[in-house]
Amino acid sequence: MARKNHRHITLARELKSLALTAGAVLLGGSGYGGSAPVLAPGETGAVASVLDGDTLYLEGGLKVRLAGMQAPKLPLGRKGFKPWPKGKEARSALSLLTKGQHVQLFYGGKRRDRYDRALAQIYTLRPDGTRDQWVQEQMISAGWARVYTWPDTVLDAAALYKAEREARGAGRGIWADEFYAVRSPDPNNLAQDVDSFQLVEGIITSAALVRGRVYLNFGADYKTDFTLAIAKADLKAFTRTGLDPMSLEGARVRARGWIELRNGPMIWLDHPERLEVLD
After folding, report:
1. How far is CA 104 from CA 38, 98, 130, 207, 253, in A?
2. 172, 168, 181, 201: which is closest to 267 by C-alpha?
3. Most buried residue among 44, 143, 176, 258 by CB atoms closer than 10 A?
4. Residue 82: is its pLDDT beyond 70?
C-alpha cells in the first residue's frame, strides 16, 4: 500500500508542477501553426470513473474518448491483448486530474465514434463554471500520452505538440520507456513495428507524384525503404495549409501513424497534423 500511495503522490506532484518552457522547435507549415480553432461547447458533468489513460465516464453514463491524444493501451477485457508499458500509470494520472471533478466537453468536428463514445476536448471547471485545466494538454505535458490527431476533428494541435516535445525532452512518463521512442527511418527496424503506432523522424531523400498520390521516400530504394504516402483525396488538406508535400525533399520531418508494409515500411498521412516539419 505504501508503494502505491508513493506512486500516486509522485504523479500528483508531476501534474501540479508542470510548466512549459520557451524555445521549442517551430513546426513548419503543417496546418497547426496558426491560432487555436474555436470549439463548440458540449456536455458538462462530474467524472464518475476512468477506464484508461484516454477514456472516462461522466456521471450520466456518457463515455468520453479524449480526442487528440493517445495514452498507453490496456487489455480492458480483450483476450490476448498485451498491455502497453505505463498503461496503469497513465490511467492513474487521468484519474488524479479528473475523477470527481466537474468538466465540460468541447467539440471540434465529429462528436461520436462508431462505439458511440463522445470525441471531445475536456476542461475541468472552477466552482464558478469557468474553464480551468485542459486535460489533454496536462496529460501530454506530464508524459502520459502522445499527440494523436484525427482528420475529422480540429483542436489546438500546436499547443499539444509543444507540450509533447517538452515532455519527451525531459523523459517524463512514457518517454522514459524505449517502447515509445522516436524511431529512425531504418526499414529493417521499422519492419519489426508493423501494425503499431510510431513516431518516425528522418530526412526525406526524394518526393514522387504517382497517379495522384505523393510518396515521400527516406532512402534510395523506394521498394524497400521507409515511405510516407499521401492519397490523392487527402492532398487538398495539405495544400489548404500552404504546405506542398512535393517541396519537402531534403527536409527533416517527424511523422506519426500506423506502420504497414507496402514494399518497405510505410505510413499513410491522411491529414497534415500528423507531420511535423523540423527544418
Report:
1. 15, 11, 10, 43, 35
2. 201
3. 143
4. yes
- Segments of the chain assigned to CATH 2.40.50.90: 50-178
Buried b (16+ CB within 10 A) or exposed e, 69-103: bbbbbbeeeeeeeeebebbebbbbbbbbbbeebbb
Least confident range of 24-38, 109-123, 221-235, 241-255: 24-38
Mean predicted lDDT score pLDDT of the chain: 89
d(CA 177, CA 167): 13
Task: Specify the domain boundaries for CATH 2.40.50.140 within the chain.
Answer: 182-277
The CATH number fitting domain 50-178, selected from 2.40.50.90, 1.10.3720.10, 3.40.50.1010, 2.40.10.270: 2.40.50.90
pTM as predicted: 0.86
pLDDT value at 17 more than 50: no
Residue positions counted in the chain: 279
